[in-house]
Amino acid sequence: MITLLGSIFRRACGLCLQIHRAYMLCLLHRACMVIIITHFSLLITHSASAQSLTMVELNCENMFDCKHDSLKQDTEWLPDGPRQWTPARYWRKLNSIGQVILSCQQEGVPDLVALVEVENDSCLFDLTRRSLLRNAGYDYLMTNSPDVRGIDVALLYQPFSFRPICYDCLYVKPLEGMRPTRDILYVQGETVKGDTLHVFVVHAPSRFGGEKATRPNRRVVMERLVETISQLSQGAKVIVAGDFNDYANSPSLLFLEENGLHNITSKAKGSHGAEGTYRYEGRWKSIDHVLVSTALTDFVLQTSVNDAPFLLEEDKKNGGVKPLRTFNGLHYQRGFSDHLPLVVRFNNP
Q1: What is the pLDDT of residues 220-261, one digit of tens each?
Q2: Sequence-ordered strand ranges (E) for 75-161
Q3: Beta bridge partners of 163
Q4: Which residue blocks in the chain are alpha helix, DSSP H?
Q5: In the chain, how many H helices and how many E strands?
Q6: DSSP for residue 309
Q7: Residue pair 105/54 in contact by the 8 Å Cβ criterion
Q8: Which band of pLDDT confidence, cut at 50, 70 and 90, is reported for residue 51?
């Protein structure tokens, strides 16, 4: 009797094991199908958009993690700091930035995204691998600058449409009395058509201390940029994007135009009331810009400011609307950024 029961038990265990194996094979098959379908869809999307290339420029407004870097002045952005920058707020910020980027293109995702005011590699890893952007397929390159707060710039790119060949972080030597600023990110890459594209991401020094007094600080960044571009081959296809902390008619931007670059976003507007990327004291202005070399001017199809309604809030003081930022003073309001993104669509260079 005991022998018979043991035999039945062993057969039952064997049957359960076979059922479990079959179930796991079924799950594996389904997972493989999902992966194949996802990658096939991405290939179709990028194949369909292969005739154009979309670039976004966005100042993320203080995209800090909530961990202290002993070499940087980042205590403002810690859980016990004045902004109470907890992990929950950090992850909400990452998802908010991801939402902004995804909203910049109706079909697929932007090919290139120039990001300003990002703290470190951890932030970019979390943004591209663990936030709303985790399935978008982005890779990234970024600087590691001597900026005292730890602020840097980065470039997200779609490997399907842009393949980096090399990159460099261009150090800007501070003038006397000027504190260290952000490096310029330079990425040389190849487009789907096999052409070489030179992309620069800039975050120029702020106007804190007065526009005129700080003008030389921005000029030295532009001189470093022009020096590097002048060493490229004649007819090189160049894109310069970022936060210049200056307007289109400011000396720093005019200096770039005098040296062969064209500000293609100087008149970019939104479709929901934004007349620039930034609003100060009730007036829309753009301190974010995208400039290109002469070789790319004929490839520009469209420039705009993404002012989707969810990115805006009522300007109760001055009327109209303004960007819905993360903080209003020290009041946390679950916003996105104090800057709106620039969107540029090129006929694939």
Answers
A1: 999 999 999 999 999 999 999 999 999 999 999 999 999 999
A2: 112-118, 139-142, 152-157
A3: 190
A4: 2-48, 87-102, 121-129, 211-229, 251-258, 294-297
A5: 6, 18
A6: G
A7: yes
A8: confident
Q: Distance between CA atoms of 209 and 39, rounded to whole angstroms?
A: 50
8-22 pLDDT, tens per residue? 545 655 555 555 455
Q: Which two tokens stand for residue 169?
A: 């972080």
8 A C-beta contact, residue 116 and residue 153 = yes
Q: Specify the pLDDT at position 69.
A: 95
The whole-model pTM stands at 0.87
Residue reference for tokens 């397929």: 137
Most distant CA pair in the chain, distance: 99
Closest alpha carbon to 273 in 223, 311, 225: 311
Q: Which amino acid is at 113?
A: V
DSSP, res 182 = P
Looking at residue 20, its pLDDT comes to 47
- Could you give the CA distance from residue 211 to residue 179 in angstroms, rounded to a whole number? 16
